[in-house]
Amino acid sequence: MKLSNSDVALALIAIACGGFTLLVASGVLPAQSAGNTPIWVVAVAGLVFVIGGVMILLRHHSRALDLFAAVILAGFTSIGVWVAFYSPADGISGGIPFLPESMNVGLGRIMFGLGALICFGCFLYALKRFFGSHK
């Protein structure tokens, strides 16, 4: 099955966005500081976009897609764990109205931690598919 023009365009947009983010993370392009966010978090976010674009282009190669999905989910897991345990409290905003900010920050950390656990479970499943189902 041939890729449509819109599939190729979407893939190229994702790769370009991720590539831009990777160039910022590597210091090639200047950017405003993201507070106390480590550069590896920015790099992982860029890598996730690049891999997502590549996955669109390789959508009929299921074994490669399983591996790429595992890498993306590992990236999501690592970012979620960083936010849950290490991000500064002033970087977590929003939440439930009328609750104190400290409770909303704690709630935000719990939600990111739960999201990281879900992503980790999906990561394990993608690895299982990559190593197990393609003999």
Descriptive report:
This protein is an all-alpha fold. 72% of the residues lie in helices and 0% in strands. It has four helices and no strands. The two termini are 23 Å apart.
Number of contiguous helices: 4
Helix content: over 70%
N-end to C-end Cα span: 23 Å
Radius of gyration, in angstroms, nearest whole number: 17 Å
Helix and strand string, N-terminal first?
A: HHHH
Compile the SSE list and pairings.
Layout: H1 5-26, H2 39-57, H3 62-85, H4 101-132
Helix pairs in contact: 1-2, 2-3, 3-4
Concise account of the structure shown:
The protein has 135 residues and is an all-alpha fold. The chain has helices at residues 5-26, 39-57, 62-85, 101-132.
Summarize this structure as a short list of keywords or feature phrases.
single chain; 135 residues; mainly alpha; 72% helix; globular
